[in-house]
């Protein structure tokens, strides 16, 4: 996810709860997004992005026994610079064995024992410097007919956008379908809503239990939700993100 200090416009009205275009987005079903027999591939730039971007979709796919591949591009190992609580040693202990992500998937009801899960270990916050390598890495695991879901190429976060571009290139090269998921774009000021490609947007409906599990899963990321007031360090994931988890839908750009 993204440090709160980098979330511009977070004190302004947000697109996700204010844009009138939201009511007009066409509904799409899971089966339409991912045809029978196709594999869904989820690209997560950082730990927590798989929940924040599409925690509902992950649940729906799991309920349908749809084949899935989760690609975690980074481990989140640079999420807490200068933090006395999350030292480099503690991060090395937790992040190479992503306990928070494992816990989050369990909270979603997604069994990890049968889930294809690949971890890239790329350095966080500098993915743009390794974009070609990220694209090549992703391409190793794609196959024709896959349906890829990545963070949006214009999401407003450098790592999210890099993974989006890399995923789009890899999908094009292999003959896979490519979809994008806005994450931080929903927290831009409303005046920026004209930058959203509403014509590409589709709405995936979530029932009350799916929504509740998604929110519960996001709370697994304690290292991102709990700041350190004594050190002047704010939570990496601000409250506004958890508020958005209560929306009974997810938006996909197709």
TrEMBL record:
The keyword NADP does not apply. Keywords: Hydrolase. Its EC number is 3.5.1.-. One of its GO terms (molecular function) is hydrolase activity. It is an enzyme of class 3 (hydrolase). The keyword Nucleus does not apply. This is PIG-L family deacetylase. It comes from Pseudomonas viciae. The lineage of its organism: Bacteria, Pseudomonadati, Pseudomonadota, Gammaproteobacteria, Pseudomonadales.
